[in-house]
Automatic annotation (TrEMBL):
Record-annotated Alanine dehydrogenase/pyridine nucleotide transhydrogenase N-terminal domain positions: 4-137
Residues annotated to bind substrate: R15, K75
One annotated GO molecular function: alanine dehydrogenase activity
Keyword Transferase: no
Official protein name in the record: Alanine dehydrogenase
Highest taxon of source: Bacteria
Gene: ald
Gene3D superfamilies per the UniProt record, alphabetical: NAD(P)-binding Rossmann-like Domain
Keyword Ligase: no
Length: 370
């Protein structure tokens, strides 16, 4: 198969879809890999390293899309890329369709095959291609939140871990999945007073067992959230409904109950955000303030640490990339239920129901195309 790695062109997105090591594995399996010039520079991988791995370097993004049968990316295509995607071309990347109607309609119109990292799902319902970036984003949420709690950046002026004789900051984490667990670990490690909420009692029991003593587990419901936000200094939104829009757990009206200088970090922004006042921001302009509350809503947080993120992402995606390249998307998805669940759009048809439901668009079961 001919595999293309275009350079990411989303604002401040420095990751690349595969490391030179990943390219080596594809070439060893008999595939041809074309990499756009400087695609790996932001992650610390040079064109020479990709050449040594067996890739051919092409100067423009247009040439990569034109020649490739499978495009492997990190982030969803942006508007300037829509016209480059060809009918029957396989695009394997994070799409997060349910929060972006223009992208959904563009991919339907392209007649391409769109396989989304975020909906590839194992039998135990875990999301193997979301896990590595969720780990990075969860840890970064605390790193960034601690930073924006500083007074010069608009925060209340609180040191996350406090000092002797001074209480630490109160951190509220909404969601006990991978993002929430990593955020709670990081905040606890820095000495904060942490509360993590989830709707699953078995999950809360598990978290209570594994997390440090300075992390409290609380059942997530409207009343408990409304009470907790009043005294929290840093709130992390870490809610995920696979492939669907995140529910709003914090509304605009609730901001008035927060202390001035409270910091909100909404990691769920890729799926529409679990905080009503959230809107996607970039690393260039990461925050905005509403009612004295600082909002950090960067939609590609792991892009700020691209070396770590690219290595972690390739570790997770490469086995799936190899299956798709070795067998073709149709056979691979027929044989592999995990990959089959990643199919969102096939040749002009939405085959992932939560995406169709998000925009009241026509849905066609994936089985019709396998």
């Amino acid at each position: 198969m001919i595999v293309g790695l275009p350079k990411e062109i989303k604002n401040n997105e420095n990751r690349v879809a595969l490391t030179p090591g990943g390219v080596t594995e594809l070439v060893k399996n008999g595939h041809t890999v074309y990499v756009q010039a400087t695609a790996g520079n932001g992650s610390g991988f040079s064109d020479e390293e990709y050449k040594s791995a067996g890739a051919t370097i092409l100067p423009t993004i247009e040439e990569v899309y034109a020649i490739a049968e499978m495009i492997v990316k990190v982030k969803e295509p942006i508007e300037s890329e829509y016209k480059l995607i060809k009918p029957n071309q396989l695009v394997f990347t994070y799409f997060h369709f349910a929060s972006h109607e223009p992208l959904t309609k563009a991919m339907v119109a392209s007649n391409a095959v769109c396989l989304a990292y975020e909906t590839v799902e194992k039998k135990d319902r875990s999301l193997p291609l979301l896990v590595p970036m969720s780990e990075v984003a969860g840890r970064m949420a605390i790193q960034k939140g601690a930073n924006y709690l500083e007074k010069p950046l608009g925060g209340r002026g609180i040191l996350l871990g406090g000092v002797a004789g001074v209480a630490p900051a109160k951190v509220l984490v909404l969601g006990g999945g991978i993002v929430g667990t990593e955020a709670a670990k990081m905040a606890a490690g820095l000495g904060a007073d942490v509360t993590i909420m989830d709707i699953s009692l078995p999950r809360l029991r598990y978290l209570s067992d594994i997390l440090p003593a300075n992390v409290k587990t609380v059942m997530s419901n409207s009343y408990n959230i409304a009470q907790a936000i009043k005294s929290s200094n840093l709130i992390v939104g870490a809610v995920l409904i696979p492939g669907a829009k995140a529910p709003h757990l914090i509304t605009r009206a609730m901001l008035k109950d927060m202390q001035p200088g409270t910091v909100l970090v909404d990691v769920a922004v890729d799926q529409g955000g679990c905080i009503e006042t959230c809107k996607p921001t970039t690393h260039e302009n990461p925050t905005f303030v509403i009612d004295g509350v600082v909002h950090y809503c960067v939609a590609n947080m792991p892009g700020a640490v691209p070396y770590t993120s690219t290595l972690a992402l390739t570790n997770a995606t490469l086995p799936y990339v190899l299956k798709l390249a070795n067998q073709g998307w149709l056979t691979a998805c027929q044989k592999d239920e995990e990959l089959r669940k990643g199919l969102n759009v096939i040749n002009g048809n939405i085959v992932y129901k939560p995406v169709a439901d998000a925009f009241n668009m026509a849905y066609s079961p994936v089985e019709n195309y396998l």
